[in-house]
């Protein structure tokens, strides 16, 4: 079995992770500034390996709602998002993860809804330094 890249990050101490890999950390979840071309795109990842929403514990499930709400508030405050998209596919990486995506007021029509994935599939992703700067901004505004 190929090593799970999300589990590899989860196994590292918080102090060893760059800001982009630890926007927010709780006992059960880690929030990452995603390697996307869209600034503010975050991944919300359980800290244990789980492949399905159905396999979350009650505590993990309850905390997920709180994180998604706080993350959305953060996107409004940090990057000026009009609202957010929440998506969960877990196809590329078989580790449950949620995309929390800023829906900007000026988002082009051809990038709205499910088409927002073009920022990952077609565009050059942000560099690590820029992701770290965005992560620090998100951290400073997290409620």
TrEMBL record:
It comes from the Bacteria. Residues 39-113 form the HIT domain. Residues 118-143 are annotated as: Disordered. This is HIT family protein. It comes from Occultella gossypii.
